[in-house]
Amino acid sequence: MDKVVACQTCGLVQEVGEVPKGCVIKCARCHFQIFHRNVDSRMRTLAFSIAAAILYFPSNFYPIVTAEYEGQYNQTTIFQGIKALWEHGQYFISGLVFCTSMFTPALKIAGLIFITLTLDWTRWKKARTYVFKTIRIIDPWNMLEVFLLAIGVSLVEMGEVATVHPGRGVLSFASVVVLTLLATFSFDPRLLWDPPEEKRIYE
Protein backbone atom coordinates (compact mmCIF):
# COMPACT_ATOMS: atom_id res chain seq x y z
CA MET A 1 0.00 0.00 0.00
CA ASP A 2 1.30 3.43 -0.95
CA LYS A 3 1.89 5.94 1.84
CA VAL A 4 1.74 9.71 1.66
CA VAL A 5 4.68 11.34 3.43
CA ALA A 6 6.05 14.86 3.63
CA CYS A 7 9.75 15.64 3.31
CA GLN A 8 11.23 16.96 6.55
CA THR A 9 13.48 19.36 4.62
CA CYS A 10 11.49 20.91 1.76
CA GLY A 11 7.94 19.87 2.73
CA LEU A 12 7.15 18.13 -0.57
CA VAL A 13 4.25 15.69 -0.14
CA GLN A 14 4.71 12.50 -2.13
CA GLU A 15 3.62 8.89 -2.29
CA VAL A 16 6.01 6.06 -1.47
CA GLY A 17 5.57 2.34 -1.76
CA GLU A 18 6.60 -0.42 0.60
CA VAL A 19 10.15 0.09 1.83
CA PRO A 20 12.24 -3.10 2.16
CA LYS A 21 14.15 -3.52 5.40
CA GLY A 22 17.55 -1.83 5.24
CA CYS A 23 16.52 0.54 2.43
CA VAL A 24 15.79 4.27 2.47
CA ILE A 25 13.74 6.57 0.25
CA LYS A 26 14.94 10.02 -0.79
CA CYS A 27 12.88 13.07 -1.62
CA ALA A 28 12.28 13.62 -5.33
CA ARG A 29 13.08 17.34 -4.97
CA CYS A 30 15.86 17.77 -2.37
CA HIS A 31 17.08 14.15 -2.11
CA PHE A 32 16.80 14.17 1.69
CA GLN A 33 16.01 10.81 3.29
CA ILE A 34 12.29 10.86 4.04
CA PHE A 35 11.63 7.31 5.16
CA HIS A 36 14.75 6.50 7.11
CA ARG A 37 14.30 4.64 10.39
CA ASN A 38 16.82 4.87 13.22
CA VAL A 39 18.40 1.52 13.93
CA ASP A 40 17.92 0.25 17.52
CA SER A 41 16.23 3.54 18.38
CA ARG A 42 14.54 2.26 21.52
CA MET A 43 17.56 0.64 23.17
CA ARG A 44 19.95 3.47 22.33
CA THR A 45 17.52 6.09 23.66
CA LEU A 46 17.02 4.08 26.84
CA ALA A 47 20.77 3.60 27.35
CA PHE A 48 21.55 7.30 26.86
CA SER A 49 18.66 8.35 29.11
CA ILE A 50 19.65 6.03 31.96
CA ALA A 51 23.25 7.20 31.74
CA ALA A 52 22.08 10.83 31.83
CA ALA A 53 19.88 10.07 34.85
CA ILE A 54 22.82 8.54 36.73
CA LEU A 55 25.04 11.57 36.05
CA TYR A 56 22.25 14.09 36.68
CA PHE A 57 22.69 14.11 40.47
CA PRO A 58 26.47 14.69 40.65
CA SER A 59 26.18 17.32 37.92
CA ASN A 60 23.77 19.38 40.04
CA PHE A 61 25.09 18.79 43.55
CA TYR A 62 28.85 18.63 43.02
CA PRO A 63 30.81 21.90 42.69
CA ILE A 64 30.77 23.31 39.17
CA VAL A 65 33.38 26.03 39.79
CA THR A 66 36.03 26.43 42.48
CA ALA A 67 37.51 29.90 42.88
CA GLU A 68 40.29 31.34 45.05
CA TYR A 69 40.56 35.13 45.47
CA GLU A 70 42.74 36.94 48.02
CA GLY A 71 43.03 33.88 50.19
CA GLN A 72 39.32 33.08 50.10
CA TYR A 73 38.33 29.71 48.71
CA ASN A 74 34.82 29.09 47.41
CA GLN A 75 32.98 26.24 45.70
CA THR A 76 29.73 26.76 43.85
CA THR A 77 27.09 24.27 42.77
CA ILE A 78 24.02 24.94 40.68
CA PHE A 79 21.79 24.24 43.67
CA GLN A 80 23.74 26.69 45.84
CA GLY A 81 23.40 29.34 43.13
CA ILE A 82 19.63 28.85 43.02
CA LYS A 83 19.44 29.01 46.81
CA ALA A 84 21.52 32.18 46.95
CA LEU A 85 19.29 33.90 44.37
CA TRP A 86 16.22 32.94 46.39
CA GLU A 87 17.69 34.22 49.63
CA HIS A 88 18.52 37.57 47.99
CA GLY A 89 14.94 38.04 46.86
CA GLN A 90 15.51 37.17 43.20
CA TYR A 91 12.56 34.80 43.20
CA PHE A 92 11.78 34.97 39.47
CA ILE A 93 15.39 34.43 38.38
CA SER A 94 15.85 31.70 40.97
CA GLY A 95 12.74 29.89 39.75
CA LEU A 96 13.79 30.31 36.12
CA VAL A 97 17.26 28.90 36.76
CA PHE A 98 15.75 25.99 38.72
CA CYS A 99 13.31 25.14 35.92
CA THR A 100 15.81 25.40 33.08
CA SER A 101 18.80 23.75 34.75
CA MET A 102 17.24 21.15 37.05
CA PHE A 103 13.49 20.61 36.55
CA THR A 104 13.06 20.44 32.77
CA PRO A 105 16.19 18.27 32.17
CA ALA A 106 15.00 15.82 34.84
CA LEU A 107 11.50 15.80 33.35
CA LYS A 108 12.88 15.17 29.88
CA ILE A 109 15.10 12.31 31.03
CA ALA A 110 12.26 10.71 33.02
CA GLY A 111 9.89 11.12 30.07
CA LEU A 112 12.26 9.42 27.62
CA ILE A 113 12.83 6.53 30.02
CA PHE A 114 9.07 6.15 30.54
CA ILE A 115 8.37 6.13 26.80
CA THR A 116 11.04 3.57 25.96
CA LEU A 117 10.09 1.24 28.81
CA THR A 118 6.37 1.24 27.99
CA LEU A 119 6.44 0.95 24.20
CA ASP A 120 5.04 -2.60 24.42
CA TRP A 121 2.14 -1.55 26.65
CA THR A 122 -0.82 -0.91 24.36
CA ARG A 123 -2.94 0.69 27.07
CA TRP A 124 -0.36 3.43 27.64
CA LYS A 125 -0.41 4.72 24.06
CA LYS A 126 -2.18 8.00 24.88
CA ALA A 127 0.00 8.52 27.96
CA ARG A 128 3.16 8.10 25.87
CA THR A 129 1.79 10.58 23.32
CA TYR A 130 1.12 13.18 26.03
CA VAL A 131 4.56 12.62 27.53
CA PHE A 132 6.22 13.03 24.12
CA LYS A 133 4.26 16.24 23.47
CA THR A 134 5.34 17.53 26.89
CA ILE A 135 8.98 16.78 26.04
CA ARG A 136 8.62 18.71 22.78
CA ILE A 137 7.15 21.67 24.68
CA ILE A 138 9.79 21.81 27.43
CA ASP A 139 12.73 21.02 25.14
CA PRO A 140 13.36 24.70 24.20
CA TRP A 141 13.50 25.49 27.94
CA ASN A 142 16.18 22.87 28.53
CA MET A 143 19.12 25.23 28.96
CA LEU A 144 21.88 22.79 29.92
CA GLU A 145 23.93 23.70 26.86
CA VAL A 146 23.68 27.42 27.66
CA PHE A 147 24.75 26.85 31.26
CA LEU A 148 27.73 24.81 30.13
CA LEU A 149 28.77 27.64 27.79
CA ALA A 150 28.32 30.17 30.61
CA ILE A 151 30.56 28.09 32.87
CA GLY A 152 33.25 28.01 30.19
CA VAL A 153 33.07 31.77 29.66
CA SER A 154 33.24 32.45 33.40
CA LEU A 155 36.36 30.29 33.72
CA VAL A 156 38.07 32.38 31.03
CA GLU A 157 36.90 35.80 32.25
CA MET A 158 37.46 35.26 35.97
CA GLY A 159 40.86 33.74 35.36
CA GLU A 160 42.27 37.27 35.04
CA VAL A 161 41.32 38.33 38.61
CA ALA A 162 41.10 35.05 40.50
CA THR A 163 42.27 31.46 40.39
CA VAL A 164 39.36 29.56 38.92
CA HIS A 165 39.19 25.81 38.32
CA PRO A 166 36.40 23.57 37.05
CA GLY A 167 34.82 21.62 39.89
CA ARG A 168 34.01 17.94 40.17
CA GLY A 169 30.57 18.45 38.71
CA VAL A 170 31.69 19.90 35.38
CA LEU A 171 32.48 16.53 33.78
CA SER A 172 29.14 15.10 34.91
CA PHE A 173 27.36 18.24 33.74
CA ALA A 174 28.96 18.08 30.30
CA SER A 175 28.17 14.37 30.08
CA VAL A 176 24.50 15.01 30.86
CA VAL A 177 24.39 17.63 28.09
CA VAL A 178 25.84 15.20 25.54
CA LEU A 179 23.76 12.22 26.67
CA THR A 180 20.44 14.07 26.61
CA LEU A 181 21.20 15.31 23.10
CA LEU A 182 22.10 11.80 21.97
CA ALA A 183 18.95 10.37 23.58
CA THR A 184 16.78 12.93 21.77
CA PHE A 185 18.42 12.38 18.40
CA SER A 186 18.31 8.59 18.77
CA PHE A 187 14.59 8.33 19.48
CA ASP A 188 12.31 7.71 16.50
CA PRO A 189 8.86 9.15 17.40
CA ARG A 190 7.19 6.88 14.84
CA LEU A 191 7.64 4.05 17.35
CA LEU A 192 4.84 5.67 19.37
CA TRP A 193 2.29 4.88 16.65
CA ASP A 194 3.77 1.89 14.84
CA PRO A 195 1.67 -1.29 14.88
CA PRO A 196 3.22 -4.10 16.96
CA GLU A 197 4.53 -6.02 13.94
CA GLU A 198 6.41 -2.96 12.58
CA LYS A 199 7.55 -1.84 16.02
CA ARG A 200 9.45 -5.09 16.54
CA ILE A 201 11.28 -4.51 13.26
CA TYR A 202 12.38 -0.92 13.87
CA GLU A 203 12.89 -0.69 17.63
- Number of spatially distinct domains: 2
Low-confidence stretches: none
**Helix content range of the residues, please?**
55-70%
Strand/helix succession: EEHEEHHHHEHH
Oligomer: single chain
The termini sit apart by 22 Å
Q: Spatial order of the strands in the main sheet?
A: 4-3-5
Instruction: Please provide the count of β strands.
Output: 5
Tell me, what's the shape? elongated
Please work out how many helical segments DSSP would assign.
Answer: 7
Give Rg in angstroms: 22 Å
- Major sheet size, sense and barrel closure: 3 strands, antiparallel
Structural class: mainly alpha
* Average residue pLDDT: 76
Portion in beta strands: 5-15%
Molecular structure report:
The chain is built from 7 helices and 5 strands, in the order ββαββααααβαα. It is mainly alpha-helical and 203 residues long. It folds into 2 domains: 36 residues; 165 residues, no CATH class. The protein has a 3-stranded antiparallel sheet with strand order 4-3-5. A two-stranded antiparallel ribbon has the order 1-2. α1 runs antiparallel to α3 and α3 packs antiparallel against α4. The mean pLDDT is 76.
Fill in the keyword field for this structure.
203 residues; mainly alpha; 2 domains; 11% strand
Compact description:
The chain has 203 residues and is mainly alpha-helical.
Topology of helices and strands:
Layout (H helix, E strand, L loop, with lengths): L2 E4 L6 E4 L24 H21 L3 E5 L2 E5 L1 H10 L3 H27 L7 H14 L5 H15 L4 E4 L2 H18 L9 H7 L1
Antiparallel strand pairs: 1-2, 3-4, 3-5
